[in-house]
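ARCHIVE CARD
SHELF: 3
SLOT: left
DATA:
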Amino acid sequence: MTGNKSIENQFLDLSIEELMKVEVTSASRRTQKLSEVPSAIFVITQDDIRRSGATSIPEALRMAPGVEVARIGTDKWAISIRGFNGRFADKLQVLMDGRSVYNPLFAGVQWEQQDTLMEDIERIEVIRGPNAAVWGANAVNGIINIITKKAADTQGTLLSAGGGSFEQGFFGASHGGKINDDTFYRFYAKGFT
């Protein structure tokens, strides 16, 4: 799914056979076709993130239907699915590359700590509805799985910067390389005022 079209327009151009073959990974912990997923799922692609101008993961989540995103401070967010939104909401399972990122103090997510470069995100899968049987106690209202690009796909140096009225200035830098044919690495740094 590449090109300059939004995900909705890309799906409109696909035939029924092609729609049946779109793959997602978060619904059942394995790659499966979208037609076999028994859940309401929405995928935010890297193209969607880039076009939206989102500078953080919570801002990108505003694109997903049914996700309540509220900024409650300079770097504090309240994010939930299916209501009951609050800073310490604990009924949403958030994963980064399949690993839970919850805070054990309140079993919720501190969104300001999930601060990866937006350019390194491949896609975000949002699943609305109960999934506790598959993903555990936090997945009562839904799951958000943030899937990052592999280090092998982010070779070279990336610099990004911007500014605005709220985030007066922000920057990001990333460098990827390889040690040998099987071992790749990526370093990144970012900051904002």
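SLOT: right
DATA:
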Amino acid sequence: MENRRILESWKEISAHLRRNVRTCQRWESEMGLPVHRLDGTPKARVYAYTDELDRWFEEKLGHGEAKFNNREFGRKEDLKGFTKPKKLFVPAAGLLVLVVIAILLWHPSPHKPGVSSGKASLAVLPFENYSGDSSLEN
């Protein structure tokens, strides 16, 4: 038996096919990408042989990269490799604005009202002795 190179994770499989992980997982479920699982369950660790992946790629997608432009084989973004999370831009920008506003509101101002010139002061308040104990007077 020949020496076959084994890819042991979705990350290695996607790097070999030059696609992102989600595309490879979609190809497994929709188009029969030859991926094996250790115990056969859907949540088990995956592995694949490079020669099987190359053969599958040529059979399914062998007419070149132009086939990716139609919706049958995948999205056009898949040609670029990993897609950027564009959906997170608006929430991230909103969070940044909130952080800037919070910093501006909580930033200590140079003139605090009610603060003395730095000299120590002591306040003496009169209290009434309700306990009846004369030793606690004054």
